[in-house]
Amino acid sequence: MLELSDLRKRFAGGPDAPDGKVALDGISFAVQPGEMFGFVGANGAGKTTTMRIVMGVLEADSGSVAWKGRPLEHADRRRFGYMPEERGLYQKMSVAEQVEYFGRLHGLGPSAARKATADLLERLGLTERRGDAVQALSLGNQQRVQLAVALVHDPELLVLDEPFSGLDPIAVDALVAVLQERCRGGVPVIFSSHQLELVERLCDSVGIVSSGRMVAAGTVAGLRSAEGGTLRVVVRDPAPGWADGLPGTVTVAGDRHELRAVDADDQEILRRALKAGRVEYFGVEQPTLTDIFKEAVA
Ligand SMILES: Nc1ncnc2c1ncn2[C@@H]1O[C@H](COP(=O)(O)OP(=O)(O)OP(=O)(O)O)[C@@H](O)[C@H]1O
Description:
Elements: E1 2-11, E2 21-31, E3 36-41, H1 47-54, E4 62-67, E5 70-71, H2 74-77, E6 80-83, H3 95-105, H4 110-123, H5 139-151, E7 157-160, H6 169-184, E8 189-192, H7 196-202, E9 205-210, E10 213-219, H8 220-227, E11 230-236, E12 249-253, E13 256-262, H9 266-276, E14 278-285, H10 289-297
Bound molecules: adenosine-5'-triphosphate.
């Protein structure tokens, strides 16, 4: 549905970096209807640059962005919802006026804009602040307004640059519910985040970007199985030297010996552990998205 192919972008250099800075070095991925795509990467990896290119804020040096099978055009973007990294709200306008205004700007009629605004302010916990100027709100509440602005016109695609940063847990849950609802309605959602547990919980697929390149992409389950699990055994008070010759590493805390090993013969390790002492834990642990991320960007 949205398809990015081999995007490249170099920023002009200054006196310190005359050759410029390669921000994107061939980014490709696709997001399908109703798919939640988590875009993760270290600071400066290229996430914002990619999203800005999708939204037409920046132009790529080469590569392409297609929407519904044809080159993305300016008119398509009017039907997208975008939350930019540089938050842009009119500070003196009231919360409700602001959201309605952006709804109108994206083509909603007055009553549709009013209704969508009231619904979203309720969902995002802003109804009581509807008449307040944006500048009087806390940063987290300003963020909620920014999200309402991105969502008000019922967009066909959502591109959200760190939408969860700075939100309290209640607001995170409210936003998750809204995004999941939009996804269920067929809208593809791309969002960047450093909150990897949240990405793992929410996303159908994930792209890990490092130095302008996509270093891993796919479903969280697929990335996990590619990575393989870690065997973990905890033995209480084992005989000395019980793990000699076994693969992996052993850490000792008091009388608890913990062995962790990858790609090991689990049955052999279990036999040795049972012989050595009381086995308190034995299992294969799947890597978390944080483990996968660290491995991919290392
Ligand atoms: N306008 C610009 N001029 C020069 N360099 C830029 C510009 N915008 C971005 N860059 C550089 O491009 C690279 C990618 O930046 P980008 O903002 O896309 O990263 P990011 O993954 O969004 O990072 P973060 O997680 O910190 O928001 C960085 O090295 C950044 O310094």
